[in-house]
Fold N-acetylornithine carbamoyltransferase.
Amino acid sequence: MRHFLSTADWTRNELQGLLDRASAFKSGTVSRSLEGKSVALVFFNPSLRTRTSFDIGTQRLGGHAIVLDAKGATWPMEFGEGAVMDGDKEEHVREAARVLSSYVDLIAIRCFPEFKDWQSEREDPLIEAFAKHATVPVINMETIVHPCQELAHMLALQERMGPIADKTYLLTWVPHPKPLNTAVANSSLLIASKFGANVRILVPDEAYRLDERYMSAAERFTAEGGGSVSLMTDVEAAYDGADVVYAKSWGALPFYGNWGDEAPLRAKGADFMITPEKMALTNNATVSHCLPMRRNVKIADAVVDSPAFMGIEEAANRLPVQMAVMEALAGQAGGAE
Amino acid sequence: MRHFLSTADWTRNELQGLLDRASAFKSGTVSRSLEGKSVALVFFNPSLRTRTSFDIGTQRLGGHAIVLDAKGATWPMEFGEGAVMDGDKEEHVREAARVLSSYVDLIAIRCFPEFKDWQSEREDPLIEAFAKHATVPVINMETIVHPCQELAHMLALQERMGPIADKTYLLTWVPHPKPLNTAVANSSLLIASKFGANVRILVPDEAYRLDERYMSAAERFTAEGGGSVSLMTDVEAAYDGADVVYAKSWGALPFYGNWGDEAPLRAKGADFMITPEKMALTNNATVSHCLPMRRNVKIADAVVDSPAFMGIEEAANRLPVQMAVMEALAGQAGGAE
Amino acid sequence: MRHFLSTADWTRNELQGLLDRASAFKSGTVSRSLEGKSVALVFFNPSLRTRTSFDIGTQRLGGHAIVLDAKGATWPMEFGEGAVMDGDKEEHVREAARVLSSYVDLIAIRCFPEFKDWQSEREDPLIEAFAKHATVPVINMETIVHPCQELAHMLALQERMGPIADKTYLLTWVPHPKPLNTAVANSSLLIASKFGANVRILVPDEAYRLDERYMSAAERFTAEGGGSVSLMTDVEAAYDGADVVYAKSWGALPFYGNWGDEAPLRAKGADFMITPEKMALTNNATVSHCLPMRRNVKIADAVVDSPAFMGIEEAANRLPVQMAVMEALAGQAGGAE
């Protein structure tokens, strides 16, 4: 049985198939592939677009979504094997995953990292435990990657410019008051390299290099399918001739959970906000950001409110791409294994 | 494209049309006017009746409602134009409104004032920003007015006594442990004057006068359509011969956000609870209150539990009037403009 | 009009009828008995299984469920008759129950005790007030008993071993870091005695005796329908020859709301976790626990992960038994009285 935990587990052709199906949904294709089926949407973190688009997408496919707020409205969860549960965790994923599997046909999970220990959190332990113990397919609604966002982003790019193979794709770190999860940055790198772009990662300092799991995956994808990956700290060189600019802020992994010491490095990126001046260096680039987005901190209003900004289309695409993912997973021969 | 932000934007005839449609729903008329459509219910504040009645109303019209708890379950929102978003606000209404518009066909919003600065809050900035940036109709589920409650109230009154034109309608301030939002008081004034009643506003002190926006609107409505508006502080005179008594507590606007200094004025209304003795002065009046309602603080049990009390009927009417509003907005020619 | 507040109000035959209907649903029987109807699920406490299974069950019967988080998302509720509501309670159950009844066809409520005063909380005042004032049937989703869990438990037992009359049924207190609600313990006692088992209640000290309301009800049930009830403190004697072992932790009622003084008694049960060694004393017993369950505190992994463990089947049965309950209540002649 197949899950949708990371696009890294799916081939470019498979992913393109999902994108093509999403396009068909946008063109009016109707599917009732979740008729009589249910989907549990389990949120350990806030959501606006994800909750709304998964719920409506399920409904459009004939199914029924249940939203579970895992912080507050349900029980704190343990995922460690053999854990002696005498702390604050009331329920083990082994039970939660099996019981939810008995009620629903798909389980979608949002669980951001906790900023405590990257060595364990980089293994994405909660969603991996769900996928191990569930007897129905599991969908990642953002953990340390955000694969549904990747598909929505790639679909919007293809709608704007066709295939992105050999295009120059700039993933730029941008300022933010707080250190953030690397999920969307990891995802930007994965999907752009998977589809053969020349990826530039612009950071204030090499300490902002993404986790080796994603860096090496991207190098493997481009080695196999075309494109390239490079880490840059020179702003002008990075923007020069870019076809796509994707903005994201994240915390430097060497300071993970110990963010006070990261402040001086963070200060080196104080001028990294995307401005019309920087955009002028590009090849009339399309610019985007996963929402929510802090205006005039990450991207200046003049860029957000220009035709170059693709963020709204990208967010709107969440609905059809997730319909394609749910349909593909629910349609697996044999259902629960 | 038309929104439903305040009844002040709709004519008496238009509002009567909504009430008549609501009556038809109560008599068994079936409409599938939201078939295949979705409604986002965005709550920045708690709700029992509003959430339940909007969800069920959407369902009865063939549509699907998504409930979004905007405090906690989703992102804090900025609405200021040009804001540098380096504080605690993660998302701008400009994005949220456009993205939600791409997923759903109607957006309904509850957002109470924050009791900080009436000069800005009286402009109802969050829902106005949603209405400006959304590409689908926006419905007010209570901000500084509560227009859905107004319709439910007026429908219940018409069911009890027919047209209220020239009836004596008493809006009385009542005690409450805390200073409250003026929304329902503003709304009571707007709808009673719109339908031609002789409106008496009974307050412990003239400092409880409602905002000039609503006072002058009510004077305009009665000048055009009959009826009158007067502010009173004499309890016996206010109850004398009243046909309707509507109870609400609110904070005096001159002390907005600085409530400590309001206490002495508030004490002047300590005996304003609605009691059988006061009701005996009326013309066998119908009495009501928007729910929730504190018993034996605002209205004595003996009045609430008498046949004069209309609050349950009024609350029950939320369902059909909101169905009428959603149907009217969803049916606009051209949909999103 | 009949509610589903406690299995104590239903005969063994009636309960068996609900279980048989649940089995039919598991075998593929389709019912649209909630077509066009709505159910309000009112949660004063967290939930995973209850929320999901009630929502999906409603959907499968053709109806529509509304989830109301009564802590935070809605208003604090008063239930006392004649209360002067000048504290933190904003809404009286008299209004909430009647208004909800005007919107929906069934009201289901979860409201755990507050650990303040057992003399008042043992009367289950909030759900009793809802049942008194609602004009539609009320379902207990766990208060000081958990009747839906009882049905799911009994159905799973019958699926494993047929009728439990004259079987030896051990309800064992197990360790937990905190004193807990007696609801599931009360329910275990009620349902096992109702169906004629020989019930042993194993506790670290006689202070853990359950409330007399449940002890005496169980004695009455077994006097009428066979079986027996005994309170035991000898672990080996209690496990000896048991056919069923059901685990639950609870606080000793004499220390209710004053838990610090309970600690020495609690320590006497430090070794009460269910282990393979204890299970070896039984008659190859089936073991279960209402979820969530703390592994390696209440039950050792080696037992949970053995074929003897019935907890997942029991949790899965929540869906069909609740469908049976909702169908039975919604189908009452005359509907609201």
